[in-house]
Amino acid sequence: MLKVDYTLFIQIANFLLLLFLLNILLYRPIRKILGRRTEEMNSFQDSIGGFQNKSARYAIELEENMVEARKGGYKEKENLKGEGFAEEKGMLQEAISSTEGKIGKAKEEIGLKAVEARQLLENEVNLFSQELTEKILGRSI
């Protein structure tokens, strides 16, 4: 059984003194360390959130730049294609005009040669006809 005497008060004082000393020597430093650790963890979490936001912004910016670069490349491709078509058209026009000129010259040459051939044939026909009439008639004309 429990006796209430002066030793009970000494035990209570001893317990309070021990509690006070443990609080000063052990609990308070551990709570300070845990508080600093919590603050440090919170600052790291904030830093991580900031870096994640930055990386998300950079990713979006990179994607936008890639889209813009693709559009620019497509426009450049279309411009080069248009220039190529224009150059092709010019070359075709040049080739067509050159061939038309050659065809015209060839037609003129053919026409001149045809005229010369007709004249030669007409002369030869006249000679042949004279020779034929002379042979048929048996005398010279």
Q: How would you characterize this protein structure?
A:
This protein has one helix and no strands. It has 141 residues and is mostly helical. It is rod-shaped. The model has no long low-confidence stretch (mean pLDDT 92).
TL;DR?
By secondary structure, this protein is mainly alpha-helical. 94% of the residues lie in helices and 0% in strands.
Largest beta-sheet details: none
Radius of gyration: 58 Å
| Total beta-strand segments | 0
Low-confidence stretches: none
Outline: rod-shaped
Which range best describes the helical content: under 10%, 10-25%, 25-40%, 40-55%, 55-70% or over 70%?
A: over 70%
Can you give the mean pLDDT?
A: 92
The H/E string reads H
Helix count, per DSSP? 1
Report the β-strand fraction as a percent range: under 5%
Alpha carbon gap, first and last residue? 184 Å
| Structural class determined from secondary elements | mainly alpha
What is this structure's SSE topology?
Elements: H1 6-137
What are the defining features of this structure?
94% helix, 141 residues, mainly alpha, single chain, 1 helix
